[in-house]
Every structure is written in C-alpha cells, then in structure tokens.
Amino acid sequence: MAKILVILGSTRPGRNGKYVADWYMSHAKDFEGLDVEMVDLAERDLPLLDEPKPPAMHDYQHDHTKAWAAKVDEADGYVFITPEYNHSTSAALKNAIDYVGQEWHRKAVAIVSYGGSGRGYRAAEHLRQIAAELKMASIRYQIGINLFDGTLQEDGSIDESKLDANVNDQLTDLKWWVGALKAARS
Q: For the chain, N or C: smaller number of CB within 10 Å?
C-alpha cells in the first residue's frame, strides 16, 4: 500500500483550506491501495526556515526539521492543497517544502488549489516549478476550486458539480505515478 500525505498549505486563521482539505479527505481516506494521511501545516512546528545548512546537504540540525524530514520521507507521494495568494502558493507551504530536499525526490505530487476567479491555478503552476526542481513528478490532473462562484458553500461543503476535475480521477493518476516511481526507486 502506498503512503500519501495530503498537505494543507494554509495556516491563516479563518482559512478556507480546512474545508477543502476535509472535503478531499472524505473522498481519499477510503481510496483503494492508498494509505492517506492529512498533515495540517498549522499544527506543525516549522518556523521560517532556520536550518544553518542547505537541505541538499541533508545535515539537519533542529528537531522540528528532523521530525518534518521523517514525515516527508515516509510518504510515497503527496497532495498539496494550496490557496492562491498574490498569484502564488502560500508562504507556509513554500517554507515547508524548502525545509527538506532529498525526502521529496522521485516521488509524485498532485495539486488541489483554491482561490478567486482563477481557481488557484497560478499557485499550482508555481508549485509545479518547485516540484520539478525537487525531482518530483507533478501529475497533470488538477482540481481547482473557485471560492466565489458557489463551489465552496456557506456551510463549508463543496459543490462538486462546479468542479472541472474530481478526486477519484486525480487519485487514480497519483496512484499510478506513485507505483511507477516506487518501483523505479527500488
């Protein structure tokens, strides 16, 4: 069984990302062949990057970095749930990604973005560039959620009829890539 971390990249009080992550997990938790765990960056102890050495050296000094590295390393793939802030991803998610290096290598990532009229797609595009630099395979199948067209309901639920993609299709692609990369790594 492949281990997938669903990483919620918003830490802002009152964030919409918690609704998006809970909705995603309601679909993903029972997906066959995947062990899916949510990681909420608001609950992690990751200050602004404070390691004295670059992550490429793989010589982590702080306990919070070592714990984060172990969590990232245990996974075979990831789902980044990102808001779009100023046409990019959140500082919290970028910081968490930057903390470690080789733990991300040769693993697959799927992206769920949310925002205004662009559904967070610009944030997702920035994450794809970052993923490529970290030797990650970013799958094409993406979910974008518009916060202002009724997709995100007042009660926090998601109107799936307004989405341009669905969780099962995304997880099917992610599972394939995770399996292919896991076999290649071994």
A: C
Distance CA 24, CA 27 (A): 5
pLDDT by residue, tens only, the chain of 186 residues: 999 999 999 999 999 999 999 999 999 999 999 999 999 999 998 999 999 999 999 999 999 999 999 999 999 999 999 999 999 999 999 999 999 999 999 999 999 999 987 899 999 999 999 999 999 999 999 999 999 999 999 899 999 998 878 899 999 999 999 999 999 999
Displacement of CA 80 from its chain's centroid (Å): 1
Phi/psi class of residue 58: alpha, beta or left (left: φ > 0; alpha: ψ in -120 to 50)? Answer: left
In order of their start, the domains of the chain are 2-185 (3.40.50.360)
